[in-house]
Amino acid sequence: MKEKRSLLRNDGFQTFAASVLCIVLGLIVGYLALLIINADGAGKAIMSVIKNFFNKPTSAARLKYFGQTLAKTAPLLLCSLSVLFAYKVGLFNIGAAGQYCLGVALALYLGICKQWPWYLCLICGICAGSISGAVCGILRAYCNVNVVISGIMLNWISLYGTNMLLKPAMDPAGKDTFRLVSKAKQALLPTLGMEKLFNDKYVTIAIPIAILMAIVVWIVLDKTKLGYELKATGNNLNAAKYCGMKENRNIILTMVIAGGLAAMGGALYYLSDFTQWNVNSSSVPGMGFNGIAAAFLGGLNPIGSIFSSFFITHITDGGGYVDLSHYCAQIADFISAVIIYLCGFVLFFKTFLNSRLNKAEERKIEKARALAAAETNKGGKA
Amino acid sequence: MENQYAIEMLNITKRFPGIIANDNITLQLKKGEIHALLGENGAGKSTLMSVLFGLYQPEEGVIKKDGKVVQINDPNDANRLGIGMVHQHFKLVECFSVLDNIILGVEPNKMGFLQKDEARKKVMELSERYGLHVDPDAIIEDITVGMQQRTEILKMLYRENEILIFDEPTAVLTPQEIEELMQIMKGLAKEGKSILFISHKLNEIMEVADRCSVLRKGKYIGTVEIANTTKEELSRMMVGRDVDFVVHKDPAKPTDVVLDVQHITVASKAHSNNAVKDVSFQVRRGEIVCIAGIDGNGQTELVYGISGLEPLKSGKILMDGEDITKLPIRKRSVDGMSHIPEDRHKHGLVLDYTLENNLVLQRYFEPEFTNAMGFLRKDNIRKYAERLIEEYDVRSGQGPITPARAMSGGNQQKAIIAREIDKNPKLLIAVQPTRGLDVGAIEFIHKQIVAHRDAGNGVLLVSLELDEVMALSDRILVMYEGEIVGELDPKQTTVEEMGLYMAGAKRQ
After folding, report:
1. B349 and chain A: CB distance < 8 Å anywhere?
2. Could you tell me whether strands B458-462 and B427-431 are parallel, antiparallel, or unpaired per DSSP bridges?
């Protein structure tokens, strides 16, 4: 009995339960939306979304597409870590999307135009994101500019800056940058044999790096002096200052780290050659914003982010398998967007669960008291 | 026969997980009386009021208004019944003006357009009638705590509330403001308002209340007529034992100068004048020097300057002969300065951190708590926290892992005091260390401060409570408009004389 209670009270368990609840709700709402649009194919459509790579007929193909889902999970995971890290320090890094662009920009530019090796491309990409994060951080620390505002504005600057920088790297045959495999093999990420395992060349070291970063973020936030300081600064800036922490340095450092994480996501993704940058892009890639959903779905826990990022990628990919004879082409994005939207409700459900638990506990105490009172009454009479 | 009670709370029981905050409590407020609700921190006063205000639902018991049972589900219900409350921590929108805050939620409007002139007239009328001086156009964050409180009172009056609840209203006020508030409360009662006055300050209850109900550890102890009781009896009811009101201390034996403040000037954030003007004084080891004065005369900024929270415009600060004027806060702290801050929520605690993490806030970086790799040594933090909790009797629901936010104000303060004194500083700066605390806790904290002095350390005390100033200090410096206008010996001066200096009527 006691163990059961402690499990329900356990923060990790609560987060997990709330996340599962969100996912189920998201799927139900998604299903309802499909029903409304076209009742005929709804059941089949939602199943294909859930199944994703299991829609493939052969196990080899399934493994290959599983690998691709993983390849897309890595950048999302890093974006969600970026959002999460800043959030723990009381900052809302909506600029992750722009920092992600800058990571792509530097990595591809140095890889294609300068023919630099992948690790230098990666490091410079990360630096670009960090610098962009630092700008937000400095504005916040010294001019009290909200990072949401500066982040959003920097997103656009970063997007068009990326377009400009990558123009020379554009393949004249289209609007996208050159494939690395054709022009810059030295910039391709190593695969460490995973390529053969999944039979897919896009499965690279990006995946283990992203997971490693999740663990590092968890350790830094939870176990170190730095994490203690950063969280204190985020929770109460005045108290941080009062006890002699360098509060401005902490804010800037947080944004540098958050920016670096998001940019690392962008750089790794594009250096795996999975996709190419469209130099005429007029909207910021959704990865940074989905990172917000992934961070919340993961219960703001770095380890939880690993699973939530995978799930969101899985759902988004699964959208591609919806039977288009019943639905228009945009349905895939629409359905995954609906599900991702509901994923943001984790904190809400957690609070709800807690209040229910409290009430149940109060009732139990009351019962016990009533029982005890009855006992003493009996005893008194006897 | 007409019902004589404005509001009755009968047999109220409210439980929280692991604690019964209110256990079968009955409170009956007569029309036009000032009824005090007395109890230590955590006795359940605030919970009971939250029940009355609809913030919590009681498990048992009923609330009656004018003899009829009423259901209060939220503060709006309470407001409709004419119940208004000034909370211990004000509920004001910091960046709004006084007037905007007063009309908030009941804005007079025509087709959605605000009719502020009307509101302003009404507010000014009320303000004059009850002697509640406010500047309607001042922004809340710029005005003194006293004026913020007057704004809260006006908020209730503007809503034509009949039942006014004051939750520890004097905790944040100066002696003069308290006196003023007492008059205001008496005036309000005379006009037929029923007042519930939550406090643990016996003097004030004796002065202003008609009757007093006492709570202890969630239980109802009794209700007494103030005319037929004494301070001692009330405190016995509240604490459950006899309380020593006198601070026992030997005469000071001052030795070396530990703090030497030389001609310091500190700018003010609120206005263009300097908050501290060319102030000089010394604190020696083995003495308690007290800065007395009315709130807002530069004490806050003086402490900010000494502790390093604000830069000095000019002047020099020496600690143990070493110039610390330009040193960062951390260095001052490590060198032996402790600071019990005025505002425990703003500076003193990280409310979302656990108690144990708050207890190491000034020492987390020491090798005892952080290893060479930068990892926290959580087992040591736990051990250290458990020791402080034990030694300083810091009470909380879950011990070291209780979130600071979930602790009562008194225990939060005890945690801060434990943290700051345990550092064994050679200079302890204590600003309002007993603000908002009950007599039991005050007694304890005063003993700690005296013991720290007797161990050969210097103490700089900033207090607005004249009783505390008189009881604790070995020397009194009175601050008025940013200057030190007098140095007094507590053995030779009187509260009246000190009041003259504090009001600027006299200076040396």
Report:
1. yes
2. parallel
